[in-house]
Design goal:
The protein has four helices and no strands. It has helices spanning 2-27, 32-43, 46-78, 80-109.
């Protein structure tokens, strides 16, 4: 969604630049049709400009990601105790969530390995307490 919005903004900006250049050429006495054609010729290949802009965006993304990772590593190195505690708590939280989900998956989500699970019943067996053999 962000990429589509950014692409649309780029297209609008390129159209604005072309319109401004055409207006300049028209002010110099060129006919509107030839002014638009000359503006496009001077601007260059619009598709190529789109590709160049996308390439710049991708490079910028990776550069900023690298900067963010380096900053995070420096911050973790500066606060070793806090970083260790955060990693430990994340590990415990992820482990607990995995264990709980595995348990719930096996109990609630998976069907029983029988042909007709609806026909199963629960039997409760109650027996008398054992009597003493001594007769007391």
């Amino acid at each position: 969604m962000e990429s589509a919005r950014r692409g649309e903004a780029l297209r609008e900006e390129m159209e604005l630049h072309l319109a401004e250049k055409a207006a300049e050429l028209e002010a110099d006495g060129t006919t509107p049709e030839s002014a638009r054609a000359e503006a496009r010729r001077r601007f260059g290949n619009v598709g190529l400009k789109h590709e160049e802009a996308r390439e710049i965006w991708i490079k910028r993304f990776w550069l900023e990601l690298g900067q963010d990772v380096r900053y995070g590593c420096r911050a973790m190195a500066a606060n070793k105790a806090f970083s260790a505690l955060a990693v430990l708590l994340l590990a415990l939280g992820i482990g607990a969530n995995t264990a709980i989900y595995s348990l719930m998956d096996s109990i609630l989500l998976r069907s029983l390995p029988v042909a007709d699970p609806e026909s199963l019943v629960v039997l409760n067996w109650h027996s008398r307490p054992p009597q003493d053999a001594s007769g007391e």
